[in-house]
Write a structure and sequence with these properties.
The chain is α/β, with parallel strands linked by helices. Helix content is 40%, strand content 16%. The protein contains 14 helices and eleven strands.
Length: 469
């Protein structure tokens, strides 16, 4: 049964509304009053205080389609974009939430009913995981939903990852968290990858579609876990992943939204091979960049604004690689707003602003991009080993406005990497010089011309990398 992304969004919200959930609009990508979080990375973020019991709402069940960005902070998928079938910097998370209302049993029932009854997914293609010690969740899946035990995998919380995220979900270093049960879809033997828990699980054959978190704790800064006032439920399903299934394709990049965006990108750039990986990257990046600007983030040299600037520059570099002549990126805002369905409304209202900001950024970076690429390519060719030295990475950053991750992106295309530590120490040396120069009490920031990148004197000290102000 084919469903458009827009239809899936509506079906999900209506399903949970019919189960007594309040439909709550997506919140901003910039978390309100939460300095611990770089960008909204899950549907539960806007309900954090409700889970903690600090905020009372008029309802105990909610559902939303939340825009999320995972391009920095605890959940960072920037380096996955273009390489996996399932990761974006920007995506929409469909979620249902119980604030001390229902718990494991109903959460699992609702998820299963939505997938197999409403969307009519074939049961035999679904697999689930539970937290290793969660016999209760195992029994609900096995006995009540009838899933054979060999398709329920117990997964612990420690696979060596810095945040031990597997089957224990946490939004950040602190805050509400808990064990979870995840639902995977098997895209078939022709795709490389193995079931969850197997060494090949990172392949894209078994794709995680839905995470149901049993919120039970509030993690403190010192690592201790305080029980929440009432056990709750927080779930998240990436709309693009479920759209891929409903549209009979494997990769998120093949769904309606991305097909349109990839085609528009190819048209705007004048490039023909629609399977090119750079087209996917640009199509991904226009979404995060456009929505970050809608939510008030402006490109800058620090914090959230620098993440935005880095994503824009990566997109521009990929466009340039495909032969784009002049600014192209901002031309994708209109097509994006048109294809996003109900999630495109806010973008439509701010389209002119978003286009303007992106165009200025593109043009600024365009001035140094070609020269920087030439230097980078020359350096990569002249290299002996596999790691580009930190001084060169720093020079590209400092003089040509190449964020280190962009340089790394180029190096990675050739199977090479960059010396991040060397880059950091070159950067620190620069800061030190700037501090010493500062002791003479002269403020150069108004004197230095923004258009002359060679005079840029360091991270955050001037707007030489193309501030839009
Ligand atoms: P993965 O293991 O595939 O990286 P995750 O475990 O990090 O996903 P969760 O934090 O559990 O993801 O988020 C809930 C859901 O949001 C996932 O099951 C998936 O459907 C979706 N999702 C997560 N990250 C992304 C992303 N970068 N792009 C698109 N969808 C995503
Ligand atoms: Mg992930
Ligand atoms: Mg996962
Ligand atoms: Mg998950």
């Amino acid at each position: 049964m084919y469903m458009s992304t827009d239809e899936i969004r509506r079906a999900f919200l209506e399903f949970f509304e019919s189960k007594g959930h309040q439909i709550v609009p997506s919140s901003s990508l910039v978390p309100a009053n939460d300095p611990t979080l770089l960008f909204t990375n899950a549907g539960m973020n806007q309900f954090k205080d409700t889970f903690l019991g600090a905020e009372k709402r008029a309802y105990t069940r909610a559902t939303s389609a939340q825009r999320c960005v995972r391009a920095g902070g605890k959940h960072n998928d920037l380096e996955n974009v273009g390489f996996t079938a399932r990761h974006h910097t920007f995506f929409e998370m469909l979620g249902n939430f119980s604030f001390g209302d229902y718990f494991k049993e109903d959460a699992i029932k609702y998820a299963w009913e939505f997938l197999t009854d409403v969307l009519k997914l074939p049961k035999e293609k679904l697999m689930v995981t539970v937290y290793e010690t969660d016999d209760e969740a195992f029994a609900i899946w096995n006995e009540q939903m009838g899933i054979p035990a060999d398709r329920i995998v117990r997964i612990g919380d420690n696979k060596g990852a810095p945040y031990a995220s597997d089957n224990f979900w946490q939004m950040g270093d602190t805050g509400p968290c808990g064990p979870c049960t995840e639902i995977f879809f098997d895209h078939g033997e022709h795709i490389w990858g193995g079931p969850p828990g197997s060494p090949e699980e990172d392949g894209d054959r078994f794709i995680e579609i839905w995470n149901n978190v049993f919120m039970q704790f509030n993690r403190q800064a010192d690592g201790t876990m305080e029980p929440l006032p009432k056990p709750s439920v927080d779930t998240g399903m990436g709309i693009e992943r479920i759209a891929a299934i409903m549209q009979g394709v494997h990769s998120n990049y093949e769904i309606d939204i991305f097909q349109t965006l990839i085609k528009e990108t190819a048209d705007v750039i004048g490039y023909e091979d629609l399977s090119n990986q750079s087209l996917r990257v640009v199509a991904d990046h226009i979404r995060s960049c456009a929505y970050l600007i809608v939510d008030g983030v402006m490109p800058s040299n620090e914090g959230r604004g620098y993440v935005l600037r880095r994503i824009i520059r990566r997109a521009v570099r990929h466009g340039n690689k495909l032969g784009a002549q002049g600014a192209f990126f901002h031309k994708l805002v209109g097509p994006l707003a048109a294809i996003m369905g109900t999630a495109g409304e806010e973008l439509k209202k701010q389209q002119a602003l978003v286009e303007k900001v992106l165009k200025i950024e593109e043009e600024n970076f365009g001035r140094t991009l070609d020269r920087g690429m030439q230097i980078l390519n020359d350096s990569l060719e002249a290299m002996d080993g596999k790691v580009l030295d930190g001084e060169t990475v720093f020079k590209l950053y400092d003089t040509y406005g190449f964020p280190a991750d962009l340089t790394n992106d180029v190096a990675r295309e050739r199977g090479l990497s960059i010396d991040e530590e060397g880059f950091e120490s070159a950067m620190e040396a620069q800061r030190q010089r700037a501090r010493e120069a500062g002791q003479f009490g002269v403020d150069y920031s108004n004197v230095i011309k923004v258009d002359e990148p060679s005079e840029f004197t360091g991270y955050g000290s001037t707007s030489g990398q193309g501030s839009i102000t």
